[in-house]
Batch of 4 targets.
Target 1
Amino acid sequence: MSPGMLKMWISLAGMGLMFLAIVTIYLSRFKLTGVLKFITAIFAYLFMIAAGLTLVIVFFA
């Protein structure tokens, strides 16, 4: 696989993580309560951090 195609797949995974982060942030803020709200918020921000690092690696590699 060429380096360009590899970067494309990695950036696509980063965009997928961003989408998961948006969905879980929405769920944690508006649909859930209690401990489940806190857990989904943690996962959402972990998805956001992982997506950001993935996209930064792709952009500067």
Target 2
Amino acid sequence: MSVPHRRLQRAFFLAIVSLPALCGGRLHADALYTLTNLGQIQLPGTYSLNDSGEVVGNLANGSPFLYQSSGPAAGTFTNLSAAVGANTNLTGINDSGQIIGNQVVGYVPPREGAGGFVGNLTQAILYSGGQVTKIPMFPGDHYNSAVGINETGLIIGSSGGTASSNAGGNGYIYQNGRITNLGNNGPTAVSNSGLVTGGSGFLYQNGHTLTGLPSAAGPTPYAINNSGEVVGSFWAPNGHGYDSLHAFLYQNGHMNDLGALAGNASGVALGINSVGQVVGDYVSSSGPYGSLNRAFLYQNGALTDLNTVIPATSGWFLTGGVAINDRGQILATGVGPDGSWAGKQDVFLLTPIIAPSPVPEPGTLAFFGLIALGLGLRRVRQLRGSVGSEL
């Protein structure tokens, strides 16, 4: 074949193969997930997932762990007991691998008539570069806790209490050795841009208190992204004469009731990523073991039961979505095949088999497809002209 004819063939081939690329690469909005069991977890517990697919938390025996899902150490568990202390509950990790947690340094004695375990007295810590740094408390306080860390190393938490109580306290922001008092606002989440939320839906950034979430609904925020979108739970009418807790997405100044998408079910949203995908759980009475929470994914206005997008033969039932990163990986909890879930659950990492990407509308697909084909055919005509001149 001559060079000009090979050029014609290549131009037409490029026109054809450009179609799926310009159409977004795939046509299906729903992604299937692989399911990685990270083991039985400590309850109650806090777990964190970063955008590199690293997970921190505590196993059922209390051991703090780091799990890596990608890179040279993919599939590796690291027991961090020796590094941060065996009695440390890990609560967060950022993309730089900085980890926060709370070392148990004492116990709240039982109140008269209460009996049993009441709570822990803790010291918040930062584990970075192989070193543990204690986060300072406010003067006169006897405990503190860390609940979130962003990509710049900004840490949020609470400080307060007495030698025998972990009640009360003020929220704080800690970064580069400096601690800022947030007053009685208890922070629960921080974005990479430094936007802090918590309490009854307050918003705070760069030393300024911003207009918060609508307070009438009694919102409890649990996560926030860089766009200022907040998720959590709030009190919503359930149609039976009283209110129940529903999952919400606060977006563009509006509270979206995600529970309404699940048949007015009570629930909570716990995680959101930068593209607005939300995970959480809602109560269902149709689970395989009776009434159980179901893990959900919310995206593009639709709520999906995560149990419908994992391998059907896994034997596991996902009860809650805990976090979601920008890769679309989801941290979730679930119960075993035997159904003996009370008091013990496992934690799972769900990884999309197909990486998430926006799904263009059919009209958009056709439009860009015609453009691609037209450009390819134009190039073919140009090359035909050059072939004729060469002949």
Target 3
Amino acid sequence: MRVNYTKIIATLGPSSDSSSIIENLVQAGLDVARMNFSHGTYPNFKQIANNVRKASRKHNRTVGIMQDLQGPKIRLGLLPKEGISIKRGQKIIFSTLAKPKKDHIPIKYRNLHKDVRKNHLIFVDDGLISTKIDRIKGNEIHCTAKTKGTLFSNKGINTPNSTIKAKTLTPKDIKDLNFGLKLGIDFVALSFVKDAKDIKELRSILTKKGHSQVKIISKIERHEAIDNLEEIVQESDGIMVARGDLGIEIKPEKVPIIQKRIIELSNKYGKPVITATQVLASMVNNPRPTRAEISDAANAIYDHTDAIMLSNETATGSYPLESVRMLAKTISSVENELKKQREIVENEIKNKDIPDVNAACLSACELAVDSGANRIIVYSKDGYTMSQMVKHRVFIHTILITPNKNLIQESSLYWGINRSIYKKFTKKQENKNFANELKKFVKTSKLAKKNDKVVIIYNAKGIGSIATYTL
């Protein structure tokens, strides 16, 4: 069974929703199963969740479940099956009317004509077709095509110069969220986040519904999010670098720079960060990835991403299991190199811009490295100690012990948590000599081998307590 530090997220769909394939994916290293609510049916999602939990129990491996909400994705309306061919320089009229004129291109978002301006760009189908707005007349958006191509029904639209005023949470999202909460999701990914208010709105809904334990992953895919990045990271429980739409909203050559900034900022605040989109895209149709794709995944690991996400590779591709295995091998290869060549990481404990309350976690990491510890035991009730420990990226086998069952699932997304164990101690045990109680539990549960050097950290949110001993 794979023991890596960087986590693997796989989107499950038609190619990977069966019980047998999900079991194989879990054995190959799946840490979080993503369900994309832009596609699929409720019965299918229920089946996927059940199959994931069944495989997780069978192989004693923690696997989280993430619901990815569609959000206010702007799309074309219904067009002829063969599509509409567009030539460069051709005049096009987009319409936001429910029943547009015959030669107009329908757009499902009814207020787009209010949000865009003259000379703004409208990209269709992941930017394959580019148009520039000449004028706006009522519900009509008159454009000139800058590139040729074919328009098809329901293709996505991006407006890199415009601020879309549509609510981040749509009625569909609320309905989908209610279903996801009944399924018992661990994470919910919020699409097209613009600022911290979007996250606060979703958190308020989760709290009112009695599901405050569900963690919010903010997807960075709009140009407005880049301007409000720090406040979004601080308000979120985790971040996703959604490079698909992001690479259309901003110049594609800027995406690697923004990706590094997002990862660095997430590391600083101890928030898990996911690198997503087209990681092994060629494996949708081919059994082997390109060298450039492997380098892309490797660079994300060098940058200290917590997790890497596969989308179409596992959801609709021909080689879902091979994709997860390839990513797992890539992670192992890079991490083994990082362990040997410390200079590549710059500094194993490089982020010292931390509040005083986190000094215990930093000290525990330094102690573990200096003493050559074989195990780090993290006891955490609310996740604070866990998140502040792993952000220092120490390559030492780390085990989470917690009385919080929700935290077990949450740990599936965090870099470096190699194993999670549920254990409830009495108040008497916690107050007397808790370090000794943890030592006993480590020994009786065989969490370390004889002569292993072990560092224990707990209560980092308070005064912080560290213990070290040899088993």
Target 4
Amino acid sequence: MNPFEAWQTEERLAFRGTLEERNLGDVLVQMWRERMAGIVVAEIPTAHRAFLVREGHLAFAYSDDPDDRLGEVLLRQGRIDLIQLDTATRQTTQSQKKLGTVLIEMGVLAAEELTEALSLQVRTILYDTMNARTGTYSAFWMEEDETVPGIPDLKIDTLTAVFDGARRVQRWSVIQRGLPPLDAIPVTTPKEVWSGIAVTLSPEENHVLSLCTGNFSIKTICSLSYLNSFDTARLLWALRLVGLIEFHSMARPATASSPTISIPPSFGSMPSLGITPPAGMTLTNHPEYQDYILQELLQRYNDMYQEVVETLSRVITEDDLHRFLEATLAPIRAALPHRMKDVHINAYGEIDYDTFVRNFATMDFETKIREMSSVLEDILYSLIYGLDQVLPSEQAREVQQRILAKHRGTS
């Protein structure tokens, strides 16, 4: 029986719509942003489901689909076996106790594991509903101090749950509805938008996020990604759902100026270099100082490129190494011909500073740092994930992890 039925009245209706127009994840993110309390009801062809939301976070969920019951969810996850489920189900019928309580009494679950099990059940219901192609949703408001008898508040982070749910969607029709045309340009949102958003990305997913600089379309990012096109597009949709990226209809102008300059924190406190700026000019606007910072930026990446080249030079010939480096840079050159003009990685694992920085000459300093970092980042990921082509998988993975750990320690 739906424990939230008493709140599903026309007087409490906040908004409604169809899942063809809007994914359930979008609805829940809206409630999170508005710190709304209420019930979201989703009617899909296979089930009637309802989600309790408290101050924007997911508190509980109900489903009339027998496969969404706690016992069935734990059975599918391998947390309990068939005999334990059968025994617990019979005991709930006899005692009128809830299944979770019976599993604790049986010693199958520890008391502190029940909350985790119920959270797993809620997430499972959410993930399946986000995968639905058709259906309707209705949101009903509640007062903050209203409670539903017998229903706990699991305090599940909405954005994390929605992001994880989006990454599990298997229907292209659902993903495609949440994306703009393929020539749209993904751009990361300002850092202040990210506050309170805690998602975990794999190295391959981090690479996709690093490409969302305002220079590449969805189509181009899919061609540069180490994930397949389906997984890349799905990740972009998931990032958009929780507000980590937004889409622009055209690329950000490379010459856009900025009135202030902020030195990336990865460079720490920069030395004065003995430079005395002319009257009216700040140190960070001094050409020699800017040149120093850009050289430091390139050197940081060259150090990691050198590690890749040194590793490969021990196992392949010089000619094969040259071919590998050129093949690695080829897709980046195709996507960014003006930024990659005459750029090569030499036999020592270095990109020439003068050649590289010349391709960004028309940009203001802050834009130059951002755009150079983006290209260098793409080269790094292209190099380390190309190692699988020439090294045994275990050795390639060890080198990848070592370089990424070093990279995270300096960024």
